[in-house]
């Protein structure tokens, strides 16, 4: 049998205070939020910047600077050959050629490493430039020596076969072509190795 409805006593006709839901037990979870406030959000660890990091170094500048150094070293070598070719033996020619390839590669590699830093493309371009410098240094020396005999001799050489300087570098059909290849290998190895060594210390 239901009881008759009875009005609840509320002095002053105040609004009833809403009851808060029971909070978690003592020692568990975060404290309950006050009425009208949002509960605190959990903190997440800071994330690093998205995307690949920008790599340092200027491969284009390294290429052009290495090319300029190679041209200068090659011209110096050609000038030395031109000034001393009458007193050079065959072995001296080979030694100067390999030594020039080493110096050319070292100069190119040092500059490429300084400017290109750790860029692999810059190191590869430096090795190629050094090999070209070793080759053209020898062929330019042949041209200078031919011009020493007069412009008529130079003109005859160009009319007969413009590839005579390149054939002289290859040994003119003799057995000195391994020395020619050795110079290219030395130039490339010096440029690549020194560029990698110097570029590794750059940031």
Automatic annotation (TrEMBL):
Ranges of biased composition (kind: Low complexity): 44-53
TM region positions: 60-82, 94-115, 127-147, 177-198
Chain residue ranges for the region called Disordered: 1-53
Stretches with biased composition (Pro residues): 32-43
Top-level division of the source organism's lineage: Bacteria
Keywords: Membrane, Transmembrane, Transmembrane helix
Name assigned to this protein: Integral membrane protein
Organism encoding this protein: Streptomyces albidochromogenes
Lineage: Bacteria, Bacillati, Actinomycetota, Actinomycetes, Kitasatosporales
């Amino acid at each position: 049998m239901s009881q008759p409805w009875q009005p609840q006593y509320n002095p002053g006709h105040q609004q009833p205070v809403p009851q808060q839901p029971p909070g978690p037990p003592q020692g568990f979870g975060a404290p309950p939020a006050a009425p009208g406030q949002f509960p605190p959000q959990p903190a997440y660890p800071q994330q690093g910047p998205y995307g690949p990091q920008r790599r340092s170094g200027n491969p284009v500048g390294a290429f052009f600077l290495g090319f300029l150094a190679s041209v200068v070293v090659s011209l110096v070598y050609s000038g030395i050959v031109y000034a001393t070719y009458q007193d050079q033996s065959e072995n001296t020619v080979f030694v100067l050629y390999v030594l020039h390839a080493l110096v050319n590669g070292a100069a190119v590699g040092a500059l490429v490493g300084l400017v290109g830093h750790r860029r692999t493309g810059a190191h590869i371009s430096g090795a190629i430039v050094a090999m070209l410098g070793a080759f053209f240094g020898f062929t330019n020396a042949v041209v200078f020596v031919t011009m020493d005999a007069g412009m008529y001799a130079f003109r005859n050489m160009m009319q007969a076969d413009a590839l005579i300087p390149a054939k002289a570098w290859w040994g003119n059909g003799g057995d000195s072509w391994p020395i020619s290849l050795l110079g290219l290998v030395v130039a490339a190895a010096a440029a690549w190795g020194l560029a990698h060594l110097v570029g590794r210390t750059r940031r």
